[in-house]
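Sequence design from tokenized structure. All designs in this work follow the same two-part layout: the structure record, then the generated sequence. An example of the structure record is given first.
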């Protein structure tokens, strides 16, 4: 936690917070002495001018104390809030720049909890630290010394009271701290179930699994509640114990103090001041103990935040990157004996992949589910790094380029069409920030999306969260338009035509064929339908990560058993395509 604080706090503000806290504590410690002076010298001797004079002094000291507290709270709050803001930003920045391998290793739910709940823990503890953690020890020692100056023998009560409190606090912490840590894990769990419930709400309803999901959530919720209840029951003992000890201490002080006053070895004012110091000592002791409960809890959060911040990207830019690709050379994309394995997997997900495509060509990848099609196209923008072989763009190994340069040269539509909240225009601007309206309409027309966008309201039509106000096919066409508007030498469509009807799919492919920009580019497309891949220059048939057939539709239809099997399941023998 100190590592996070050290990096992100403004030290001048922390110093000011501490300085004003010392002002407040000094005023708080001085006040009981002023009170005792009023009683001893003013009230006892009925010296009214002294009471007025000392009363004014008391007001001034109280004012200084309040000012010190206000300034300290201001700096402590702003610093802790700024720390929270910085940490949230750093986490968001890190998470959005993680390569897929590291992202897969964590999961969404815990990333969200770490960015929200864990950061709040750190923020709260930092606020507490900049007040209580510094104030309590100073107050404890200061009030101890002041109490001692009022009466030496009465301080013996603390020798009894403080060990009793210490034992109570240690006992409570012993049981509470592990529970606090487990609460954080349970928050992760509840977030996971909640997130799955939200994203899968339609599936849940369709399968009539509302009750099952509710039970699952209820289970996680009840589990969290039980732990939270245990934590709060345990910590709730703190207050009665504290009240009991404080009352016992006060009784002891009054009882013993009365004897001292009777024997004329103590003044009434000193007894009153002593009682105030006793309260300050015990309260600061309790506050300090609470800080020690908060710290392990925040420490657990700090570890979780540091875990994310310390994640090293497995895909990194080269130390001496090659120049950006030569744009006027005809584009060439090569896979040269490429092997790839997911982290921790025993088997290769892709094995010995080879192909070369040049500008204007279309490479289509077809195969059963799980055969490795998406994996293959994800290797081109380096979402994962390969284990063996080389992927080259215009003769350069893609690992020798910066990821920014590489991504500038690739425009991709993922298998699951992702749209962002905003408008059609803002979504298209993801592809080309300075795109004109004409360019946007051109891309929409190419993607067969022009008609419905025009009918529904044009470029400023709202796009709701996840594009929920569009059908699956419409979402996919919008995502394709966003890919097409970006000028790039390589276009990738990962099963992007699957939600389109046959006619729209055929029209879209015909549009792409006729488009001047697409004629200069390499198109890599993953598809399940023979009709989608039939026109491609190179078709690769994948089976369990291996290429079991490579060629044109005609060649494969004539010689490749796997391809023929796919045709058989989709197109009746003797149809036009078989000819
Ligand atoms: N992130 C991942 N971590 C580990 N294994 C993965 C990951 N993604 C995919 N796989 C595995 O890699 C293999 C190939 O998956 P891939 O998604 O490339 O298949 P696909 O051919 O695109 O399938 P589909 O047509 O169903 O989309 C599968 O066995 C899958 O279980």
């Amino acid at each position: 936690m100190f590592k996070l604080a050290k990096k992100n706090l403004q030290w001048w503000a922390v110093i000011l917070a501490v300085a004003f806290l010392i002002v407040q504590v000094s005023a708080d410690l001085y006040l009981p002495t002023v009170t005792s002076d009023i009683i001893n010298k003013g009230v006892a001797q009925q010296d009214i001018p002294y009471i007025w004079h000392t009363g004014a002094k008391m007001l001034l000291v109280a004012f200084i104390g309040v000012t010190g507290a206000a300034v300290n709270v201001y700096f402590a709050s702003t610093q802790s809030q700024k720390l929270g803001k910085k940490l949230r930003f750093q986490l968001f920045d890190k998470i959005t720049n993680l390569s897929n391998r590291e992202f897969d290793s964590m999961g969404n739910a815990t990333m969200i909890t770490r960015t929200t709940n864990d950061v709040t823990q750190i923020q709260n503890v930092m606020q507490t630290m900049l007040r209580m953690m510094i104030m309590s020890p100073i107050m404890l020692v200061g009030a101890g010394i002041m109490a001692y100056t009022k009466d030496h023998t009465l301080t013996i009560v603390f020798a009894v009271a403080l060990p009793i409190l210490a034992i109570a606090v240690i006992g409570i912490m012993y049981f509470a701290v592990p529970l606090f840590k487990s609460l954080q894990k349970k928050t992760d769990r509840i977030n996971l179930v909640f997130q799955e419930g939200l994203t899968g709400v339609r599936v849940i309803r369709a399968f009539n699994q509302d009750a099952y999901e509710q039970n699952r959530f209820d289970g996680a919720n009840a589990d969290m509640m039980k732990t939270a209840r245990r934590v709060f029951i345990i910590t709730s003992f703190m207050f009665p114990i504290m009240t009991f000890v404080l009352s016992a201490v006060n009784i002891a002080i009054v009882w013993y103090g009365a004897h001292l006053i009777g024997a004329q070895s103590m003044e009434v004012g000193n007894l009153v001041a002593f009682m105030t110091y006793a309260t300050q000592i015990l309260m600061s002791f309790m506050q300090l103990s609470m800080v020690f409960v908060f710290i392990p809890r925040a420490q657990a959060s700090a570890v979780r935040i540091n875990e994310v911040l310390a994640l090293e990207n497995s895909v990194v830019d080269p130390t001496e990157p090659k120049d950006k690709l030569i744009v006027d050379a005809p584009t060439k994309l090569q896979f040269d004996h490429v092997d790839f394995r997911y982290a921790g997997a025993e088997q290769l997900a892709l094995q010995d992949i080879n192909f070369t495509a040049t500008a204007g060509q279309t490479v289509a990848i077809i195969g059963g589910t799980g055969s490795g099609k998406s994996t293959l196209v994800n290797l081109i923008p380096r979402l994962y790094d390969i284990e063996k072989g080389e992927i080259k763009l215009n003769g350069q190994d893609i690992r020798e380029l910066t990821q920014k340069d590489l991504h500038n040269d690739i425009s991709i539509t993922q298998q699951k069409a992702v749209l962002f909240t905003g408008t059609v225009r803002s979504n298209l601007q993801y592809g080309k920030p300075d795109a004109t309206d004409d360019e946007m309409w051109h891309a929409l027309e190419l993607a067969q999306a022009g008609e419905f966008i025009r009918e529904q309201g044009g470029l400023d039509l709202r796009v709701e969260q996840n594009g929920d106000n569009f059908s699956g096919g419409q979402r996919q066409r919008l995502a394709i338009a966003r890919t097409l508007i970006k000028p790039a030498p390589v276009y990738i469509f990962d099963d992007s035509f699957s939600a389109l009807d046959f006619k729209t799919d055929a029209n879209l492919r015909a549009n792409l064929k006729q488009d001047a920009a697409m004629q200069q580019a390499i198109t890599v497309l993953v598809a399940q339908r023979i009709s989608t891949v039939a026109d491609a220059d190179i078709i690769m048939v994948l089976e369990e990560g291996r290429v079991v057939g490579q060629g044109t539709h005609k060649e494969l239809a004539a010689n490749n058993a796997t391809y023929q099997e796919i045709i058989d399941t989709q197109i009746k023998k003797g149809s036009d395509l078989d000819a």
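Residues 48-96 form the longest helix (49 residues). We note this feature because it recurs in several other targets discussed in the main text.
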